[in-house]
Amino acid sequence: MVSSGAGLSAVAIVGPTAVGKSDVADRLAARLSSEVLSCDAMQIYRGMDIGTAKMTPDECTAPLRLVDIVEPGVAYSAALYQADARAHVERLLGLGCLPVFCGGTGLYLKAALDEMDFPSGELEDDRRVGYQELAERIGEEELHALLAERDPESAAVIHPHNVRRVIRALEMHDDGVSYAQQKSQFSVPREHYHALWFGLTRNREILYERINLRVDLMFEQGLVDEVRGLMGQGLGDALTSMQAIGYKEIIDAFNGVISMDEARELIKMRSRRYAKRQLSWFKRDDRIVWFDMDECTIDEVVEDILHRIGGCLMARFPLVPTSPEPERAILVGVEWRDNAWPLGRSLDELERLAHTAGAQCVSRLSQRLVKPYPKSFIGSGKVEELCGLVHRMDADVVIFDDDLTPSQQSYLEKAVGEPVKIIDRTALILDIFGLHAQTREGRLQVQLAQLQYLLPRLRGMWSHLAKEQTRGGIGSRFGQGESQLEVDRRLIRNKIAALRRELKQVGQRRDVQSKSRIESPAFRVALAGYTNAGKSTLLNRLTGSTVLSQDKLFATLDPTTRSYRLPGGRGMTITDTVGFIQKLPHGLVDAFKSTLSEVLGADLILKVVDASDEDYERQLEAVDRVLDEIGAGERPTLTVFNKIDLLDSVDRLSFRRRYPEAVLFSAQTGEGLDDLVDRIAREAAATDVLLSAEIPYREGALITLVHEQGTLLHEEYLEDGVRIVAKLPARIAPRLERYRTE
Fold first, then answer.
1. pLDDT value of position 122
2. What are the distances in angstroms from CA 146 to CA 186, 410, 485, 584, 708?
3. Cα–Cα distance list, 508 to 214, 366, 517 (Å)
4. pTM (two decimals)
5. Segments in the chain below pLDDT 50
6. Distances (CA, A) of 101 to 15, 21, 26, 54
7. Contact, 719 vs 638, CB < 8 A?
8. DSSP E strand boundaries for 410-505
């Protein structure tokens, strides 16, 4: 046994199903150069992948252990898990690695990390089979009565319908151990390994929504076929593995007990209840430090955990460095005859982009041109000047403010020499997006855009292999086979196709979520604007959330939706979206169209503008250009100028005269927020429908909806219902159409 004084021996990430444990644990283990040890009682079974939400190898950054270790028909228990888990812990400790446990099966986790002794019955011996046969013969109630006769104390704490636990208590009694006494010891755990415990939680409604979406996605991914395949192997619902949520229900559907639609809804309900039980279990353990995943990003949680670990770690557990030396960058810009933006301002923005990506700008180089040189983009003299500047400044990367063709990039790389990289504005933005994407959809979108950017540049990157060829097969009469370049292109095209298919699937899942919002009576507002205009700060100020808000470009990539109640009680949802920028690569706009669809579905788009930026007009033009590109140009919009706390009274007056319909406010200080909210409320009310109706008392939910979302002008209680005259949101009015009166 490793005593607590010997130092930290493990980290545990726990919480309810669908809260995001796997992503946090995987990223944490990667940072620790370690492995994830699953503590999920159902992920141990092979072939049960979709219904248990296993991470696929492609999704894992760090090795994942203790999954797929037994066949579904093989008996397994907490005692067996204890032995298997501790073997992995000792192996990792011997390698100088800190194990990261992850899962929602509290008993398994306690078995691995705490002092728990199991009776022989836990090892699934012949007595268990005997007790199971006895239960089938005499029934649940009689079996519980047998336990009450032998061990009244244990029977008092076990529900008669929990047959599995009743059998376990009988086995323990046979071994001279009281289930009740052992259970009472759980409240005062004794460590076998010194571990740090971290729990993840979310708002219950959001968690339940994630669970529902996960179940829908499981069905889309082929859960029904997975269960059909397991049944084809002779596996039935009598097995412990087949009692897992998601499997038992579909087996019942196959057997005609319920319909498949009923099975889907039953899985959702039981998963929600299971999540509630998990939270109750873990909340009893005061060792757990909790993180609200509605208020934190994955990276923020990982960084906090690493900080806490740092105070406990022995020297044998090396952390992956978190502050690498920034790359030294030289910026190159061209002043064109028809420049929409001054070159200096454009390079200032490029420098901010480079800073966001973690680079340090050490110098700039510029040239006036009518058109780019086909071979080198800039003139030969400037190329020589650039080479000298790179060597003097010891630069690592050269960043061009405009897009380079693949041949131009290849020529410049040869001229400057290795290992200096030549990239353009698009490549830089792609790097930033790759750093900041948090959701699965965001990461897929970035990968797609990166591969689309990479594909035409393969020749330059793989020129040393361009003539190398794979052998043709026996009997090939059409050449020697594919060149390495052709192979790589084919692989990338296949990957692009696969990413598009996966994005389509993820999009379908998001559409389910969006559909629920569309059907909701809440007024939908989307924030659109230039990057760093203050959209996330506005969202946080209005709703009290803590969405990442930094003075960096593209700090927010993934859409975030929060609820808000307008004056008068009307519900509203407000969605933060990815920021726009000048020269935003078309491929990125195309890749992120699914994410930006949140803007398309909004009732009102708030165009957030940084009033303190001297180029605010050009930024506003860039925003309008992107909105037109994604098909949102005709949606209702309201221009709102942020950061007025940085303006003097003269500038404020100028804005009000020039943009009389706009709203001026400061998301940082709160100044003008009341005016903004009132304006949104007026915009919402402008689309209301005047309606008279007699609603029967049995439609209580509909009456409540009118009170909450409408403006009640008249209400009269009749014998059979309520007569109302109200102004209602356009999406609500059709629900009352059948009760409408003239």
1. 47
2. 25, 81, 73, 73, 54
3. 12, 46, 14
4. 0.44
5. 1-6, 120-124, 314-323, 460-482, 516-518, 551-553, 555
6. 12, 10, 10, 15
7. no
8. 421-424
